[in-house]
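for the record, two folds in this file. i put them one after another cuz i was lazy. first one right below, seq on top, structure tokens after. the second one comes after a little note so u can tell where it starts
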Amino acid sequence: MEVGTIILAISLIIIMFGMGLSLVKADFLRILERPKAIIIGLINQIILLPLIAYALIVLFKVDAAIAIGIMILAACPGGPTSNLITHLAKGDIGLSVSLTAVNSLVTVFTIPFIVDFALKHFLDAGQVIELDKLKTILQVFAIVIIPVTIGMWINNLKPNFAKKMQRPVKIASAAVLFAVIIVLVLKQKEDLIPYLKQAGVIALVLNVITMLLGYLSAKMLKLNLSQSITIAIESGIQNGTMALAIALGILMNESFAIAPAVYSLIMFLTGGLVIGLGLRFTQGNS
């Protein structure tokens, strides 16, 4: 799947470039203005999400390929899709954008260690893949930080152009993501049913638990409704394209990509449910 892998990497670069087009310096400085909300969100995303993913893997006793795929996904930051869902659900869009931006920076360094742990823990001794952490950091840096930086630079120089490009970039990136998922499903059709049974259940449970925990932790720590909705979304909506790029482009294993692909589909369905609930709750409190 070499051509598909290249297309996927280009798609991820475009997605991160598109995210950069919507970012300004204030999105990173917002952590100083509202540290409590940002810290709660980051704890849910960077610490609790991988821990919950690991606990569910142990509980459900899934195949090694599914386990590694779930851990890859849990290591990734929230995707730009979370910003759109937050907007539609009447959440705090400023908090959402800031969390996505900061989380994308932090996970450049955490992804290699979580993925390396998953490979060593879930593969048999003879199958273990040695992950070059420094190389992985540089690869993730190249497909995340550089395009985001270029996007922010263009937004600073040509804000009107950046605003016009945001929508087509999002549509194109979503189209490529679904195309890659379809190709992956077709190539893995022989093993698809058993993989789907395992990946579908654990992906749905992980998605629902992390969103609920994000919302409840925010409410318990006295954040307002829109902030709580935002943290719930940011906790459960992951950058599926990045997870697929890591599985296919860095690890070169299509089996590892099944769980992120399934999760990517599920999160759009649960995201739609959150939008409905968010609209209902915010209208009821207005």
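(here's the note) second protein begins now
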Amino acid sequence: MRRRRLWFGLAGALLVAPMLHAQCDDPIHADDQPMACGVFGPEVPPEPSPEERKLIELQTRLLKYMAVTAKHKVAGLASYYSRSLEGTLTANGERYRAQRFSAAHLTLPLGCWIEITARATGKKIRVRVNDRGPYAYKFVLDLSWSAAHALGVDIAEDRHVDFRIIGLPGEEPLPEDALPPAAAITAATSW
């Protein structure tokens, strides 16, 4: 039994040995370069430049946001808070202020940033989700009065909006010039 293990170990070592030298350019010549390759392994790729690193970080954040977006409803009708709710507590403990840009969504993480585009007017704003709602089935977002007014949702007949996540809780929202068009993200996430 012990001899069998020894033979299998030796056979395995003989099979693996050529693979180790396959990383080198020319394992037959014994000059410095192939020997260095065999000793130190393959060449390490160069460090990315600061611009490339920023692009990689942006792509990583966008992929993370798209994964979160896939779990939530991100298009539909928007409603807005009544002015009589001024000063009441929101779901995250802040006071509702009609003059601030804020929104309520049933499932998005509290504290995340979203960019909303009104279909009727084409206007675009950025708000932070700080409350839960709306609880009426046909609405997907509940906006503060000033946010609804800035989008034109308060007077438009068509209250359809599209939105996308631009920052998760604790993160600063992505800069506007760093984002791809909203249509590209909406098309990629719609089923």
